[in-house]
Amino acid sequence: MARVLVVGAGLTGSVCAALLRGAALGRIAVWDKARGAGGRMSTSSSARDAACIADLGAQYITLETEGAEARRSFYEELLSHGVLKPLTAPIEGMVVKEGSCNYVAPQGMSSVVKYYLKQSGADVFYEHHVTCISLQDGKWEVSRKMGPPEQFDVVVLTMPVPQILQLQGDIVNIINESQKQQLESASYSSRYALGLFYEAGTRIDVPWAAQYITDNPCIRFISIDNKKRNIESPEIGPSVVVHTTVMFGSEHLDSDPAEVQQLILNHLERIVPSLPKPASIKCQKWRYSQVTKAVPNCLGQMILHTQPLLICGGDGFTFSNFSGCIDSAMSLAEAVKSHL
Ligand SMILES: Cc1cc2nc3c(=O)[nH]c(=O)nc-3n(C[C@H](O)[C@H](O)[C@H](O)COP(=O)(O)OP(=O)(O)OC[C@H]3O[C@@H](n4cnc5c(N)ncnc54)[C@H](O)[C@@H]3O)c2cc1C
User: Fold this and answer.
1) Do both 250 and 198 map to the same domain?
2) Residues of the chain with pLDDT under 50
3) Would residue 83 count as lying in a domain?
4) Same structural domain for residues 242 and 147?
5) Does ligand 1 have an atom closer than 6 angstroms to the CB of 144?
6) What range(s) does the Amine oxidase domain occupy (predicted)?
7) Do 194 and 262 share a domain, yes or no?
8) CATH code, domain carrying 22
9) How far is the CA of 285 from the centre of ligand 1 (A)?
């Protein structure tokens, strides 16, 4: 029975683990360095009230008409389980493609990832930061920042491409020169996200649920997150999410987080002066936000070593949205199954 490790509890890793369930495998483990599920589809809670949540990464999911057939069952399953609901709240400045539909996750984007992790039946471990992958007796020995190394027959990597290239051990020499060039050519934008959490009963008096901003050097998107998710309740405080522009993100990538937070708040006050004072704030840096150039000439994954199998995927091998992750996860799962 093969022991499989999926590194990354983001959308690609969780869907891949779910697709591998039932294939003639031993147990599947999912490791993530973070403290919870979601990756760039994570949902944060207020420091004061765990029920007050906000999506600091992905905001909504779009089902495009093009090439939708293979992916349609994924959307339908999530809709039928109530994990996704149609986006009905007004979003100003959103470019709506003809024939496409948008969906939100009422319980936050991480609920989508949690749904697949549950489906997978995998053993999921957080705060497992993989640092080193080496060959040992025909298996992969995977080391992490804290705790002993463990051995696996198959390893699937789903983190952003630059983080794959940071891994140490035999993997460094296993990635051949042409693959290294392909991987190094992938690029990502960077941006900050701010989550503002309010006390229950606070009124946020704006006519929109979210809006894209086109004339501000710092802020690109503002959302009244609970209104966007169509959850407005007197018992749970509202939350606001702000995404910066890519330019602001890259200019302040290594600045002091407290200063960055204040700069964003200053711009926000000018754009929406009526916003009340939040009870708590979270500032999130997305160093690898969205893929601007995917790994070229690969169909959603790249095999780094065949026997034992070491394979990588994620939105860096397709494109940065729900469909891109589904495509990569399907491609990863097919490749793993055909090796078993
Ligand atoms: C601000 C923002 C807005 C977005 N908006 C949308 C949107 O509206 N709609 C949409 O569809 N998409 C959107 N996206 C894109 C979408 O979030 C991503 O395409 C998707 O989440 C990528 O999933 P993934 O599983 O491939 O990667 P990730 O979500 O990055 O998952 C990789 C996981 O690997 C873990 N990891 C990394 N290194 C290690 C290590 N060494 N050891 C262990 N674990 C590790 C990380 O903690 C992470 O959980 C947005 C993204 C951002 C950042």
Assistant:
1) yes
2) none
3) no
4) no
5) no
6) 97-292
7) yes
8) 3.50.50.60
9) 12
Does 132 fall in a domain? yes
Atom of ligand 1 nearest to the CA of 131: 41
Kindly report the three-state secondary structure assignment for every residue of the chain: CCCEEEECCCHHHHHHHHHHCCCCCCCEEEECCCCCCCHHHCEEECCCCCCCEEECCCCCEEECCCCCHHHHHHHHHHHHCCCCEECCCCEECCCCCCCCEEEECCCCCHHHHHHHHHHHCCEEECCCCEEEEEEECCEEEEEECCCCCEEECEEEECCCHHHHHCCECCHHHHCCHHHHHHHHCCEECCEEEEEEECCCCCCCCCCCCEEECCCCCCEEEEEEHHHHCCCCCCCCCCEEEEEECHHHHHHCCCCCHHHHHHHHHHHHHHHCCCCCCCCEEEEEEECCCCEEECCCCCCCEEEEECCCEEEEECHHHCCCCHHHHHHHHHHHHHHHHHHC
> What are the pLDDT digits (tens) for 234-269?
899 999 999 999 999 999 999 999 999 999 999 999
10 lines ligand 1 (CB under 6 A): yes
CATH no. for residue 249? Answer: 3.90.660.10
pLDDT digits (tens, 9 = 90+) for 299-334: 999 999 999 999 999 999 999 999 999 999 999 999
CA of 226 to the centre of ligand 1 (A): 21
Q: What is the pTM of this model?
A: 0.97
Point out the ligand 1 atom lying closest to the alpha carbon of residue 316. 26
| Atom of ligand 1 minimally distant from the CA of 243 | 1
Cα of 10 to ligand 1 centre, how many Å? 6
How many structural domains compose the chain? 2
In this structure, which residue's CA is closest to atom 44 in ligand 1? 32
Same domain membership, residue 168 and residue 225: no
Name the residue with the closest Cα to ligand 1, atom 48: 39
Q: For residue 147, what are the domain limits?
A: 4-35+126-186+295-338
Residue with CA closest to ligand 1 atom 4: 58
Cα 136 to averaged position of ligand 1 atoms, centre (Å):
30
